Each structure stands twice: as C-alpha cells, then as structure tokens.
C-alpha cells in the first residue's frame, strides 16, 4: 500500500492507502474521492480525471505523453502542474504523493 493524499479544492484532505500497480484514477474511484470522474474509463480520452500535482511531486512522475498533453489542454483551468489521474500509475516511489482536485472537471 502507498499513502496518497487527495485534497479537494476547498482544502478537505483525505489520505488513502492506494494499491500499487493501479492508476491514480482507479484508486480515487475505489475510495470514492469526489471531483475525479474518469468518464472515459481511464483511456486518456477525456479530461475528467484532471488533478493538480503538489510541489516537487510533478517532476517525480513519468513525463506526459503527447495524448495526455492534448487532453490536459482541454481541461477546465489547466496549470503547469496538471496531470490526468488515469495516466499516473501508482508505485512505491509515490509514497506520500499529494494531488488536488480542481473546482470542476
């Protein structure tokens, strides 16, 4: 298990014991994290699992694919630290990861 903290746009934080090997989206859905929808089922075909990666964590993630970059550009209020939760695979190196959900998807 890998501890991940999801922070809602209003500052409400929830730490979960995420399952390594699954995507951040799959873990968010398993723990019913509000604000991370994943309408396309995790196939990088929408931007409804858009999150903001906190601080130094962004540079520790694998680089975005061209497709993810295109989808992030379509998200509501994208920022330099925006990622899609469906494209982040959880592993032990992400222990302590903190992501914020946007106001809306």
Describe the structure.
The chain has helices spanning 24-30, 66-74, and strands at residues 2-7, 13-18, 50-53, 82-84, 98-100. By secondary structure, it is α+β, with helices and mostly antiparallel strands. The protein has one domain (2-100): Beta-grasp domain (Ubiquitin-like (UB roll)), CATH 3.10.20.30. Strands 2-1-5-3-4 form a 5-stranded mixed β-sheet. A hairpin with a 5-residue loop joins strand 1 and strand 2 (13-18). The longest helix has 9 residues, at 66-74.
Give me the secondary-structure topology.
Layout (H helix, E strand, L loop, with lengths): L1 E6 L5 E6 L5 H7 L19 E4 L12 H9 L7 E3 L13 E3 L5
Parallel strand pairs: 1-5
Antiparallel strand pairs: 1-2, 3-4, 3-5
Q: Compute the CA-based radius of gyration.
A: 12 Å
CATH level 1 name: Alpha Beta
Sheet/helix structural class: alpha+beta
Fourth-level CATH superfamily:
Beta-grasp domain
Q: Tell me, what's the shape?
A: globular
CATH topology-level name: Ubiquitin-like (UB roll)
Tell me the strand percentage band.
15-25%
Number of strands: 5
Annotation keywords:
single chain; 105 residues; alpha+beta; Ubiquitin-like (UB roll); 5 strands; 21% strand
Summarize this entry quickly:
The protein has 105 residues and is α+β, with helices and mostly antiparallel strands. The chain has helices at residues 24-30, 66-74; strands at residues 2-7, 13-18, 50-53, 82-84, 98-100.
